[in-house]
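We now fix the convention by which a protein and its fold are recorded. Here is one such record, which you should read through line by line:

>
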Amino acid sequence: MRPIIGMTACRGEGNVYKTNDTYVKAVIRAGGVPVLLPIAARPEDCPRLLDLTDGLLIPGGVDIAPQFFGEEPVKEVTCIDRVQDEFELELIRQAAARKKPMLAICRGLQVVNVAFGGTLWQDIPTQCPQAHGHNQETESRSEAYHTVCLSPGSRLAAVLGKEELRTNSYHHQAVKDLAPGFSVCAQAKDGVIEGIESADGAILAVQWHPECMAERHPEFRPLFEDLIRRSASNK
């Protein structure tokens, strides 16, 4: 049977819960069954939700409230959702305790890092003056933008079969202090962290959006195929 992949659904305009169809299509293409987990679910419901899923995909979204990593917001942080933060942080921690397979993307990577004690650069342009561009025009989401170097020997490098690739980029925040129990598995050429993975192999997280590139650029599909394989063996 195809594994069930839970994907958190954020709040959108018109009182709806949503996720981009590119996530859904990427999971289906890789052989999984996507199920949306609305962030309105109570944190105490996380154990039941995890019982219903074989793996998790934590997608992109708005900024994380800086209070969750001990800081006050800089003026460039303008859109947060504490309900989403609280739900995803609890879901990720409980999933990790079960060694549930996870793939985290963009904001998802940042939430994973914060969930286990890491911190973030709240705004790359103002706090990392050495950084190159990381926030391309959103209308070109399948367009490769900058180079990412993968760490030799990392799980990410093994999954993608590469040491370097060009990715899209839609973020103004990034990992600052890495959470304990994780290693950096990808960086941009300016040093900005682009991928992290847990020591136990359960969590793989990337800063770019592979779901937007997977149809046009097949080299990104193994990220989702790896999640499905790991989730199938977790059934």
Notes: The chain has eight helices and twelve strands.
